[in-house]
Amino acid sequence: MKKYYLLLLVTLPIVLLGKSQVGQSEMKFVKLNSVPKPNGPAKLVISDIYFIDAVGSENKSLDANETALLNFNIENKGIGDAFSVKVLIQDSSKLKGISYGNVINIGTLLAGKKTNIVIPVMGSSELVSANANFLINVVEGNGFNADPFSVTFNTNELKRSVLSIDDTYFVNKDNEDTVLNKDKLMQLKLLMHNKGQGDAKNISVEFYTPPNIFNFSSDKIQINELKSDQTTEIKFEFYANNKFEGNQIPIKVKFFENFNKLVLEELKVANISNDKSSITKLNIQTVNDQTASNFTNFSLLPDVDKDIPQSNTNFPNRFALIIGNEDYSSFQTSVSKEVNVDFAKNDAKIFKVYCEKTLGIPTDNITLLYNATYGNMMQSIDKMKKLLKVSEGKMELFFFYAGHGLPDEASKEAYLIPVDISGSNIKNGIKLQDIYNSFSENESAGITMFIDACFSGGARNKEYVANRGVKVVPRSDFLNGNIVSFTASSGNQTSSSYSDKKHGLFTYFLLKAIQETKGDLTYKKLWDYLKSKVPFESLKVNNKEQEPQINIGDKAKLNWENRKFIN
């Protein structure tokens, strides 16, 4: 192969030797790399310059721990071939945490030909948020260089996860009661929330208990991923043996990310046989100094199940009968779980707490029935009837029912359905009018009834009687006595659930009205609230019409509007 030499004049950037070695008129010969002689002028043209984001990313930026691509075409539009073509890349911004190849060797690009260039640009975990500017030169061995160009794009620092515990509570496993007993299986529930902008990966949750406390479930839970602003519920079941002493059970919980990096540590303390468990935070460590994003805290419990107002007033003459009929399938082999009444048990459970804390009803005056049979319901109704009789008009009664209701298709009379009564034998249920009559036979300080059931033949989820025909509009009962009855729906409508709140829709807004006012509201204000909220939210959440109904006894018509929960 021929060797080529180029004579460089002093007007070009060369290295000058000292005067002692050469005269001013001497010239320097420089040996070049072997580059073929051009067979005509090459003309390199750059086109179709693109910044290509990483797969799955759409922010058109280079993120930390991500690889993006700089893409462009080089075309030789000259009449001669281009030799020793190279792409020289320089990050003029000199950002930390960014890496790329400095040189791409292309070699020969024949006249009229085009080639595609792809430059991977990688961001490490140390990448900072800024603007990157890449200066790109395409040079040719005989000097037929392309016009230089630059590409500017945004870079984003690492989005880190920030794990936190939004909500915690202890319950007895068998009945979800928050009053704990050592002789029962207990459960710790945690709601973990990723409040960082980045996803948390490979999370490990470990539980540590004191001596004589044993885990019933695993003491180590693995979670593959928790995305930004995502939550997950964690459950840990445990029990105490007979050697355990004391009324507090401390449980340490450690959270690790990326298999072994401790990011959060908390201490939860369960108080035994107290009104509620104690929750104590020991320490919090985050992955780095990045603060949590402004995300809303989530809760394991619906909002009406927490922060229940505490009244200082006690009403010794107030009584309550509360029934939550949810599980019909366990009492009747002919029906499926689909006909169970979602959240009816929780409706009754939380209404009882409001009765105790807000309405001032002594606990001993409250009868709470879960999944009540015909016998259970009739015994309790008869007991309240007898108490009203002997109270000489001083007793005030609150009656709450959540469960199935059905109409008699012939008489259109409404029935409450115990869990052991088939929907095809409606008349074996309890006629609502009979309950009204029982309670109004004697004088009272007031009877208030809340019925979260419908009497059209519908249900919260699946109809209790399969393939039922046209829904029935139940008959409006005439009420004697000092009774005000609020029912969840009207006519042939269905009483719906509110799944996000874990309650019946009617019950949720009943509790919400009491919670927001701390019980200081009249029945008229309650009724205005219910008839405003329930229809709107039913259409919005369930796409169903549901309008609550009120029925007022003849002796309550003059004063029901001013009647109050807290006198």
How would you describe this protein?
The structure is a single chain. The chain has 567 residues and is mostly beta strands. The chain folds into three domains: 44-156, Immunoglobulin-like, CATH 2.60.40; 163-301, Immunoglobulin-like (Sandwich), CATH 2.60.40; 315-562, Rossmann fold (3-Layer(aba) Sandwich), CATH 3.40.50. It is 13% helix and 35% strand. It has five helices and 31 strands. The protein has helices spanning 344-357, 374-390, 432-440, 505-517, 523-542, and strands at residues 5-8, 28-31, 44-52, 61-63, 66-76, 82-91, 98-100, 103-109, 114-123, 130-139, 149-156, 163-172, 186-194, 200-208, 213-215, 220-226, 231-240, 248-257, 261-271, 278-283, 318-324, 366-370, 396-402, 405-407, 414-416, 430-431, 446-452, 483-487, 497-498, 503-504, 549-552. Strands 22-21-23-27-28-31 form a six-stranded mixed β-sheet, sandwiched between helices. Strand 19 and strand 20 (278-283) form a beta hairpin. Helix 1 (344-357) packs parallel to helix 4 and helix 4 (505-517) packs across helix 5. The longest helix is centred in the C-terminal third of the chain and has 20 residues, at 523-542. The chain is elongated. The relative contact order is 0.07.
Q: How many strands in all?
A: 31
Give the mean pLDDT.
Answer: 85
- How much helix, percentage-wise, in residues? 10-25%
Q: Provide the CATH top-level class of the largest domain.
A: Alpha Beta
Query: Strand portion, in percent?
Result: 35-45%
Structural class based on helices, strands and sheet pairing: mainly beta
* Main sheet record: 6 strands, mixed
User: How would you describe the shape?
Assistant: elongated
Q: Into how many domains do the coordinates divide?
A: 3
Q: What is the CATH fold-level name of the largest domain? A: Rossmann fold
Question: Any guess at the CATH architecture of the largest domain?
Answer: 3-Layer(aba) Sandwich
Q: Order the strands across the largest sheet as they lie in space.
A: 22-21-23-27-28-31
Helical stretch tally: 5
Low-pLDDT ranges: 1-27, 283-289, 465-472
Radius of gyration, whole Å: 39 Å
- Termini Cα gap: 110 Å
